[in-house]
């Protein structure tokens, strides 16, 4: 299977380095992506928006030309969902890593601080305690060293969707910060942030208990969860 790995904010393709070997060893073709504006800390980010990130993923889907599994971490989940909306016939499954599908008109995160027309990695104090579970001082230093500012539009642009066939694309939620049972309960309670997820016809749940960055804190466990999701595709 062709697996496209979509990083979340502040991260490039290298953020998947500790996850990809296990996927490749299992015989899969893995494409970790660096999204537009995330090529380096000095890259030009002005004018780059959410649609540019979606376009980049769709181009790779078209290049591959066959069924793919999309894996989206954090803000990359919104990108993965929109790419599945554009190419529902080409996506065998979407795997959301501590993330979920963003519905029509939704914003990934319009509360992140903008500095010099980009979004740098904020101070750790801005994050919830659940985000930072298992993120040791050493891992935080490594994260800070590699962090790349995110284009403003990736967080502040509204999601635009077109094709209801996206709800036919199976999904797997890899729950990290909060157990999947809690997420299922939120869906049952009609929590607004679960509205789009509730419309997907086939959803599986896997738990990797840790913080918001399992590719750093639990890479082995994350890789095994992705493999389980791909096997279901």
Compact summary:
The protein has 233 residues and is α/β, with parallel strands linked by helices. The chain has helices spanning 20-25, 50-64, 76-86, 137-146, 152-156, 180-188, 195-199, 214-217, 219-232; strands at 2-6, 29-32, 68-73, 91-97, 171-175, 203-207. It contains nine helices and six strands, in the order βαβαβαβααβααβαα.
Verbal overview:
By secondary structure, the chain is of the alpha/beta class. The protein has one domain (2-232): Rossmann fold (3-Layer(aba) Sandwich). 34% of the residues lie in helices and 14% in strands. The chain contains nine helices and six strands; from the N terminus they run βαβαβαβααβααβαα. It has helices at 20-25, 50-64, 76-86, 137-146, 152-156, 180-188, 195-199, 214-217, 219-232, and strands at residues 2-6, 29-32, 68-73, 91-97, 171-175, 203-207. It has a six-stranded parallel sheet with strand order 2-1-3-4-5-6, with helices on both faces. Helix 2 (50-64) packs across helix 3 (76-86). It is globular and about 40 Å long. The N and C termini lie close together (9 Å). The model has no long low-confidence stretch (mean pLDDT 97).
């Amino acid at each position: 299977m062709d697996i496209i790995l979509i990083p979340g904010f502040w991260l490039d393709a290298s953020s998947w380095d500790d996850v990809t070997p296990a996927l490749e060893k299992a015989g899969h073709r893995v494409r970790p992506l660096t999204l537009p504006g995330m090529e380096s800390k000095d890259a030009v980010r002005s004018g780059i928006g959410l649609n540019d990130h979606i376009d980049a993923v769709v181009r790779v889907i078209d290049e591959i030309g066959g069924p793919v599994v999309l894996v989206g971490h954090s803000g990359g989940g919104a990108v993965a969902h929109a790419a599945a909306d554009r190419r529902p016939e080409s996506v065998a499954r979407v795997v959301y890593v501590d993330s979920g599908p963003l519905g029509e008109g939704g914003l990934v995160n319009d509360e992140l601080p903008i500095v010099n027309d980009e979004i740098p990695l904020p101070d750790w104090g801005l994050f919830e305690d659940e985000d930072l579970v298992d993120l040791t001082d050493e891992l935080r230093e490594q994260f800070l060293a590699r962090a790349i500012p995110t284009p403003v539009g990736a967080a502040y642009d509204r999601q635009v969707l077109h094709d209801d066939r996206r709800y036919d694309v199976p999904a797997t939620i890899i729950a990290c910060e909060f157990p999947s049972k809690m997420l299922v309960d939120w869906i049952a309670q009609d929590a607004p942030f679960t509205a789009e997820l509730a419309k997907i016809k086939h959803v599986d749940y896997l738990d990797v208990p840790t913080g918001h960055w399992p590719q750093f804190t639990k890479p082995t466990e994350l890789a095994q969860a992705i493999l389980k999701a791909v096997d279901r595709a």
